[in-house]
Specification:
The protein is an alpha/beta fold and about 350 residues long. It has 13 helices and twelve strands. The chain has a six-stranded parallel β-sheet, sandwiched between helices. Strands 7-6-8-9 form a four-stranded parallel β-sheet. The protein is elongated, with a radius of gyration of 24 Å.
Length: about 350
């Protein structure tokens, strides 16, 4: 039989109203009482109905994660962010919905309005590039819907989580320089995306520090997807003086670069060094395993959601938390070919 709120109240020795107050995180409940009620919920595996919680107060206990379906179909990075948001929701008795949207669609803002009205979400977690979409942010503020952002470009007036992509990219490209590479190419992410901008800046900074001239022919547009990595690598490897190393702005594109290199009969890293960014599960599944930057995407999703929940509970204004990066140097990078 399903455990009812009244069963929890009986086990904790309190009234059903007190259990309801604990569920809705209301004030004026003693800490000792709150702990006793929560312990009873855990021991009885009580799962409150979100609709019942909503009736007890003015909140839905529903968080929506929004992402742009134009640019990120089947993204491993997004899947990791989603898992992190879900971790935070599960730990705090919130429900979660995932909402793919088309940012460039004519009905984009209307769909966001419908989402808020139809589902009465308490708040939203925004992923790039929605994190810096002015009409969306303006509409959320107009409707007084709290939001937290993952990797926003504008970091002065938002809460959520970020990472220093620029210095991470610079460190990774500097690793290629230290191996002896001078002809280093870069596959960009989506145009006007924050991560694309920062990773390009890091690439350029590493070249400047090494005294290597910037060559625009070695920088090719990609779209953060496998196929765009393949197309970019084909273009780069067809140059009169092809690069000896390619830094792709994410792991999916780096996998495409490795595929194109193999298509040309090249061996990684003997003939071409390849590195990516994010350290998604794909990076260690490739052969050879991919050198990359570890961006803790799941942890970032969790931290963004937790900052949002702090705001929703009125326990603070929320923060923009910066997480550390780390280089994952694997077998896909090595010294340049002797004949290069």
């Amino acid at each position: 039989m399903r455990v009812r709120l009244e069963d929890v109240a009986r086990a904790a020795g309190v009234s059903p109203k007190t259990v309801s107050r604990v569920l809705n995180e209301e004030a004026y409940v003693k800490d000792s009482t709150r702990k006793r009620v929560l312990a009873a919920m855990d021991s009885m595996n009580y799962r409150p109905s979100p609709s019942a919680r909503g009736l007890a107060g003015s909140r839905s206990f529903l968080v929506a994660m929004l992402y742009d379906n134009n640019d990120n179909p089947a993204s491993t990075y997004l899947a990791e962010i989603q898992d992190g948001v879900l971790d935070a929701c599960d730990a705090n008795r919130y429900s979660m919905m995932v909402c793919p949207l088309r940012m460039r669609g004519p009905d984009f803002i209307r769909r966001v309005d419908a989402l808020i009205s139809d589902h009465h979400v308490d708040g939203v977690v925004l992923t790039p590039p929605l994190t810096d979409h002015p009409p969306l942010l303006r509409r959320l503020r107009e409707r007084e819907v709290p939001y937290a952002s993952v990797s926003p470009v504008n970091r002065s007036e938002t809460i959520g989580v970020c990472m220093d992509d620029e210095h991470a990219a610079q460190a990774l490209v500097s690793h290629l320089v230290q191996l002896g590479h001078r002809r280093i190419a870069h596959v960009l992410g989506i145009a006007n995306h924050g991560a694309t901008r920062w990773r390009l800046a890091g690439y350029k900074a590493a070249l400047v520090a090494a005294g290597i001239p910037y060559d625009p022919d070695y920088v090719v547009q990609g779209e953060f997807m496998f196929g765009s990595g393949v197309a970019a690598a084909r273009k780069l490897l067809a140059l009169p003086e092809p690069p000896t190393a390619i830094f792709a702005a994410n792991d999916d594109m780096a996998a495409g670069v490795m595929w194109a290199a193999n298509e040309c009969g090249m061996k990684v890293p003997r003939d071409l060094s390849v590195c990516g960014f994010d350290d998604t599960p794909l990076a260690s599944q490739l052969w050879p395993p991919l050198s990359t930057v570890r961006q803790p995407a799941r942890e970032m999703g969790k931290l963004a959601a937790l900052q949002l929940m702090e705001l929703l509970r009125g326990k603070g204004t929320g923060l923009l938390v910066q997480v550390p990066y780390s280089l994952q140097l694997r077998e896909s990078t090595g010294k340049p070919p002797k004949h290069a």
